[in-house]
Design a protein that fits this description.
126 residues
């Protein structure tokens, strides 16, 4: 059951929500679950179980662009624009890059200090 869920919703699944860009029918770039690297993935054949297989793991946009151009030809021109707009290092991604479906998956965040130092109301205990 766990493997089935991973195939469907994990990094290798069609419904994975951190797809950076679809390069063509057989190739895409995703952000890993931990947000520490981009992954160049190739679509598996139906006889191999479908889904996506990792080809390369990169922390720099220079590397992911180079490897995409090397392995994923031909690349859709709009996908090249998305790749060219990636920050130099994945650590510089403050929110997910443009997703192919256009849905903003970012949520407002607050710093831990905003939670710790809230003033207490009269009569309120810790």
């Amino acid at each position: 059951m766990r493997n089935q869920l991973d195939r469907e919703h994990g990094e290798s699944g069609d419904t994975y929500d951190r797809v950076v860009v679809r390069l063509n029918e057989k190739w895409r770039v995703v952000e890993c679950r931990a947000g520490i690297q981009w992954i160049l993935q190739r679509r598996k054949s139906a006889s191999d179980g479908g889904g996506w297989s990792a080809r390369s793991f990169c922390r720099t946009s220079e590397a992911i662009r180079r490897l995409a151009r090397q392995h994923a030809k031909p690349i859709d021109p709009e996908a090249l624009v998305v790749l060219d707009r990636l920050p130099p290092w994945i650590e510089e991604v403050r929110q997910p890059p443009h997703h192919q479906d256009g849905i903003d998956r970012t949520a407002p965040t607050t710093s831990p200090s905003q939670h710790r130092h809230r003033p207490r109301r009269r009569g309120q205990t810790a």
